[in-house]
Design brief:
seven-stranded parallel beta sheet; Rossmann fold; 14% strand; alpha/beta; binds uridine-5'-diphosphate
Amino acid sequence: MKRQETTETALFVSQTAEKGGAELFMLDLITHGPAGWNGGFFADGTIVQDLAAAGCKPVVLSGGSSVLTVRREASALKLVSVAGGVVTLARALARAAKDYDVVCANSQKALFVSALATRLARRPLVWVLHDIITDPAFSRNTRRAAVLFANLFAARVVANSRASAEAFVAAGGKADRVRIVYCGFDPAAHPQGDAETGAALRRRFGLKDGPVVGLFGRLTPWKGQHVLLKALRGVPDVQALIVGSAMFGQDAYEVELRQMVRTEGLEGRVCFAGFQKDVAALMAGVDIVVHTSTHAEPFGRVVVEGMLAGRPVIATSGGGVNEIVTEGEDGLLVSPDDPAALAAAISRLLADPDLAARLAAAGRISAARRFHIDKTCGDMRAVLAEVR
Ligand code: UDP
């Protein structure tokens, strides 16, 4: 990992240091960007350790626990009740922010705290937006508050896709402040598999010979793991490796999925692998990477990762995914929540290895070119230069 020696400094702030897509974006950015970029967190977690292992000195602010308990569908009353915690945290962040030219809030909760902190520290604020904020998962209050804070306090809003940018503007966000910076990846960290990679993967997870499709992501209803389970009925010889764990209080869905394996008669064909750190290596060992989100994905890191692994990818259309995959050229797109269409796409790739190989090869090239971490760091530097 090379960090560039420049005089630019920026503090990227996240409320959590657990590994979701937004936090992994931040990890990649900081470890590949200028040496003066750092991470600040409201709680300790694995990303803090990863940054420290990469030679960074991440800032962990104490007192963030009350802010962490607020969910995005929270009521106005709940938001008011944590206001005191926000002020304490903002003061601590303001002290840390004095060492940086710019503060970049990497989530909505980070935006609220960073807005106050940057006022106190007299530093410009950039909001890195990883969500489609018109999604019904956000309460009206949360959405309104986020747009209001962004319009009042953020010099720039960096959206992780055109879809996220357009939703922000549709919700009343100021269009002239928006810039798009896609997630970036280091292609060298995404190995290509061979026959032995596939065999090792089957041994490791107790899978049999025969086709394996891999689904990667948190276990939560909108990521659509249930859609894959339903699709498996239409492709009787296919096994599924489901990688990811329930995060942010979604344990009931995991119970439901395991129950579904029994009721659908899929025993012995589905492996729940839990959270895995080596997603890139695992993707290289499956035959097809599928993506099954039932709602428009703000970006969809796993889709790019599947392409970089040199695997054919089937993704659900919508949101950022349509900016990643060109149907029939570097992957296949199916409608969300359509198990029959997913089963048909899986059958099509298994029946036509030439098509699968062509999509996989094109996918690797297009993903490495368009979503390279160096490009992401360059795009982010350009935005920060506008506000510095
Ligand atoms: N991921 C991981 N281990 C897992 C499951 C997922 O490291 O067991 C990673 C995955 O490789 C991807 C990220 O989590 O980089 C998820 O990002 P994505 O944009 O797909 O979804 P999000 O969680 O941000 O909605």
